[in-house]
Amino acid sequence: MKWQEHISTDPKVMLGKPVIKGTRITVELVVELLGQGQTIEALLVSYPHITHDGVMACLQYAAYVLRNETVYEAA
After folding, report:
1. CATH architecture label of 3-67
2. FRET pair for 41, CA 20 to 30 Å: which of 14, 27, 49, 75?
3. Do 8 and 42 contact (CB within 8 A), yes or no?
């Protein structure tokens, strides 16, 4: 699965933040909830209009962003 198939950005939706396609559920929200200990199953119950693939795409997107992040040494 490619995250690009499930994640989109549009300036008219959530101010351009990446979201699960066809929703207003941001990648940020999904990663935050998982980081707080919520399970994927609980997310799917709370947000029935998203899919398991959509949640996994959020994690893949987050990894992509972090992998491509530029880190600068402190002065």
Report:
1. Orthogonal Bundle (1.10)
2. 14
3. no
Q: Contact, 29 vs 43, CB < 8 A? A: no
The DSSP secondary-structure symbol of 74 reads: -
Identify the bridge partners of residue 8 per DSSP, sorted by sequence position: 19
Q: Where are the domains of the chain?
A: 3-67
Integer Cα distance of 42 and 68 in angstroms: 30
Q: Tell me the C-alpha distance between 57 and 66, whole Å.
A: 14
Burial 45-71, CB ≥16 within 10 A → b, else e: eebeebeeebbebbebbbeeeeeeeee
Look up residue 43 and give its amino acid.
L
Residue 2 has pLDDT above 90, yes or no: yes
